[in-house]
Amino acid sequence: MGNLLKVLTCTDLEQEPNFFLDFENAQPTDGEREVWEQVDLVLKDARSILDELQAYKGAGQEIREAIQNPNDEALQEASWAAVVPLVGKLKKFYEFSLRLEAALHSLLGALTNETYDDPTQHLEREQALAKQFAEILHFTLRFDELKMTNPAIQNDFSYYRRTLSRMRINNTQAEGENEVNNELANRISLFYADATPMLKTLSDGTTKFVSENKNLPIENTTDCLSTMASVCKVMLETPTDLFLDHEETVSFCLRVMVGVIILYDYVHPVGAFSKSSKIDMKGCIKVLRDQPPNSVEGLLNALRYTTKHLNDESTNKTIKSMLQQQ
């Protein structure tokens, strides 16, 4: 994903990051290896999760026919047979989100501890972990983009729950009934009810990490996030870098930048849009605006609709205007 990339400047940070970040070839040091191996097990499954989600077609046809012909037993059975394996996939995606949250906690623990004096040193010296953090964010934004454009997911799960409830009332034993018990079904339903379920998982997970680690200054976490945002922004601003020839790498950096901004906005007491924010939001939005509109509309919407502090009175009006213009 590009050669070694040098971060040049970022005027809005108290200390300008000036180091190489290798998103392609970074290998874990002995100190990183234990956490890296734990997270690697999760990331190895991320690609197949995205592939399965992208290929998810839903059971819309079978469900429509079953609803339109409620007395046709064959159609009822056909719709149920179509939905059950799909619910198995939805359960798998949900369970992966729990693994992803645990991986995030491991990475945050490593990248924010007191081993080094500041987050820049962590990111510079623990590049393999920084790369994994970026890969988690990239996966998260991509998963949510795919989920938002696939209404079949919620339709299928709603139909499954309604049908299962009806079967229980009628004391009918359903094949696949044990796939998802009631408590798990409630949690899965809440997960998919959110427009960006993976991002919510990471936002909640980051907030939880901070609240559970009160011995760590909150700045350890927020500075790690703001530095990552700066790294991505400057890479995208630097057209001389070879990585800009690769559309996949540009997309990767854009998603990571937006992901860390959103996490920062949830964790920082006044968020990413205030004057005291260490993220150059004007610069980040400009970088997004400089891309082909179709390729970044989903990311702009993520900043518009999934951040916590955008509509606060303290938000810079110029930033709000830049973000809201179509």
Automatic annotation (TrEMBL):
Alphabetical GO biological process terms: regulation of actin filament polymerization
GO molecular function, one term: small GTPase binding
A cellular component annotation (GO) from this entry: membrane
Pfam families in the record: CYRIA-B_Rac1-bd
Topology within the bilayer: Lipid-anchor
CYRIA/CYRIB Rac1 binding domain segment(s): 18-320
UniProt keyword annotation of Nucleus present: no
Primary location class: membrane
Subcellular location as annotated: Membrane
UniProt keyword annotations, A-Z: Lipoprotein, Membrane
Coiled coil, from the record: none
Family: Belongs to the CYRI family.
Protein name, UniProt field: CYRIA/CYRIB Rac1 binding domain-containing protein
Organism: Esox lucius
